[in-house]
Amino acid sequence: MSKFGTSLYVHNDSVSPVVILLYVDDLVIGGKDLAEINKVKSLLSSRFEMKDLHELHYFLGIEVIRTLVGI
Q1: Contact 47/37 with Cβ under 8 angstroms?
Q2: Residue 34: its H or E element
Q3: pLDDT per residue over 3-13, tens digit each?
Q4: Which pTM value belongs to this model?
Q5: Under 8 Å between Cβ of 10 and 30
Q6: Within a 10 A sphere around the Cβ of 20, how many other Cβ atoms?
């Protein structure tokens, strides 16, 4: 859990952390290392029923657009 609230979690067991943002029953999982992201998704899906919607396009009514310098 983050010091910023109960909606932000950081999985920091490796060199590259994975960030999990939670809102009600929606998750946004992100990080720099795709292998680490997939490990976290696999761990979560082994314990909870989940649907992977792949790349983020909208979250809470906000459109997310990727560019070369970030989102």
Answers
A1: no
A2: helix 34-47
A3: 656 788 888 87
A4: 0.76
A5: no
A6: 19
Phi–psi pair at 31, nearest 5 degrees = 170, 180
Tokens of residue 38, six digits? 């997939």
H or E segment and range at residue 9 = strand 8-11
CA distance 7 to 48: 17
Rounded to whole angstroms, how far apart are CA atoms 19 and 42? 15
Long-range contact pairs involving 13-22 (C-beta distance under 8 Å, separation at least 24): 21/59
- Which residue's structure tokens are 């906000």? 62
Helix H, strand E, coil C: the string for 35-67 is: HHHHHHHHHHHHHCCCCCCCCCCEECCEECCCE
